[in-house]
Queue: 2 jobs
Job 1
Amino acid sequence: MKIALLIVYFAVLIGIGLYCRKHATNVDGFVLGGRSVGPWLTAFAYGTSYFSAVVFVGYAGQFGWKYGIAATWAGIGNALIGSLMAWFILGRRTRIMSQHLDSATMPQFFGKRFGSEALKIGASIIIFIFMIPYTASLYNGLSRLFGMAFDIDYSVCVIVMAVLTAIYVIAGGYMATAINDFIQGVIMLVGISAVIYAVLESKGGFMSSLDGLARITDESVTTTPGIFSSFFGPDPLNLLFVVILTSLGTWGLPQMVQKFYAIKNEQAIQKGTIISTLFALVVAGGCYFLGGFGRLFSDQIDIKANGFDSIIPTMLSGLSDGMIALIVILVLSASMSTLSSLVIASSSTLTIDLIASKFEMSESKQVFLMRILIVVFIAISAVLALIQYKSSVNFIAQLMGISWGAMAGSFLAPFMYSLYSRNVTTAACWVCFIFSTVLMTANMLIRPMFPAIMQSPINAGSIAMIAGLIIVPLVSAITSKPDKILIDHAFAAYDRTTVVPQSVALGKK
């Protein structure tokens, strides 16, 4: 059953990739689907790019173990801050200004918005450096699940996942990714709901599981009775940092913001906001909620020997073959959807912002180069994942947190402020870029020298994002004002008159 379901699943993905070849003949079509993607596809593409095996296996297990049922706050934050507020604050303005400036990537947006080729190149280099380890980390959550479900070497899993993702992304570009993301999103919605029900039923149902969790104590964490079933858990401050990094971080990640570039129309934004929020509430909320019950299986888990990544697979190991098959496809869906989004963002950035800007290239050559680079990026990430698995090196998994902190810390504030304010300066962007990348690199290399609160990459990444929100307006206030002609051109995007029906906006008498 497990093998048969996987074969059907892979056949559908490849078929969609081949079907969407007609949408991937030029740069706009390959990278953005011709900016004609509807609300359901855009919302699901946003959600499935957001949540991967890293969340389902790694973060849900780790934070559920540390904070108990309070870890669900991370999922709620992902829905309200990472989805609802991101769509509401960034969605419409990103779509309008990016189209007006004819930008298809985040570095290209910075370059045209501020009239700075250097700024575009700087943003491209940050993405290139910090995206690859993030891409490699997507494979990590699959190893234990495949070891539990199949007698197949993890290396085979990595290679199969890499090859299949490459086929449908190379063939159909963004449109194939968006359609496959929709299918993968449906699998994730159904899968996480079924898994939660099955796991809790194995412990006597929700109330029985909650009662069992309330009876667990861990003196190394706290002596407070019932703390793991409480509203805020044993460590509210560090839980807050988790919420900030995993929720606010999406506002500055290139592969997430790029989804707004491709939105079809106003109605797509309105519907997409609701759909993506509900999707995140079910998937992210469900993942962290499930992880919160991890301590019920503490008699089967050895954290010191096997790490936090062993928690979720252990919780699932006693389920039926059919349920395990669904879980494997669920985690594959989560990982492949995020992987496809990352490699499109990486290849388009390198092609459009670094190579094509230096050498004259036709659109067909740019699309061909992007396809080549997709193969390169996927191959590098697969090799790194195999190196980690074979040598038990853990630095790649650690770099996932570093990657989020560096990219979101660098881009969140400059990007968001530049959509709303005429006063943001090029110098402010540079200071934010440098501050965040230096902070996160130092956190990786000399972590023991940091204050205790910042020794966690999650806490350091959250601080980088918050600091950027202060750095950009502060530096903009004390540096030379941007060129008025350049700014007027960018903000002219919002001044164009659009006639709409009264069902959309009330008119005068």
Job 2
Amino acid sequence: MNRVFFFSLFLIMCFVKENSIAQSRKHISQFSFFQSYYNPGLTGYEGSTLRGFVRNQWGGFQGAPKTMFFSGEFDFAELAGNHNAALTGKNAASVNLLYDSYGAFNETELMLGYATRIRLSHEHNLRLGAGVNYMNVRLDGTALSTEQQSDETLVGYLGSFADMQILDFNIGIALTHENYYLSYGMHNVNRGRFSQGDNFMDGRPVSYIVQAGFRGKLSENIGLIGNAFFREQEGVPYNLEANAKALFMNKLWLGVGHRLNYAHNFQTGFVMQNLRLGYVYELPVNRSFMMGGTIHEFMVIFHLFEGKDLSGRQISIW
């Protein structure tokens, strides 16, 4: 019954597409480590984990964007003590908390996700997911830029503070394998129509997100991983980025990435028994007028059941 419900919901939402007002976008250079944030269908893809990152953009600029994120993903079969959850587990849930500040705005986002898995073969799974997204947006009218002060909607809050709460939904579908995945997700499928508080934003536009990745062994001690990400959202240019990493002796990775027309990045990280630590140094490209200065991003992932379920994987990261 759950599978039929999720599949029907996904088909219905795929045909919903209308005009809307643009919103801020959160860029994550290490997007391949936070797949379930963009697509609830990928919840629990790598088992039960705790994840987090801190991103500091345009250091030295007043009002520069800063993002902090924490999430927990829980595979129900693992929590029940099943030592073969990768094959027998069917359901997973997640809690995601993101705080983002940029200029006069502060956003706190809470996302609850649920995913169910349909086993297509011994190695392939179809994952369906849905989530509830609650966001609180706070406006500091004393920090509005000159351009924002001329906005007909925002000018009424000049010199004061405002809060707005929005409730919306996310859905996703994914085809997964031990060594590759392909997924499609949607954020804000209701376009922010459920809201309360001060009305300084005209809804939230739908985001359409495609993710894909592949990993394999080049030799006994070297693995190669590639990931791609595409996002379309009305009111802003589409977002296309990719990264490639080399993993040495399943302990150290080095990688590069590119966000089309925006930035290059250089990545490094370490793999320990239950822990993954990553760092990204990002540089905007010369023609990027939407970014300035360098960007630092730190990431940490803790696998709750690494010793039981994940140690046998040939390559331990995406």
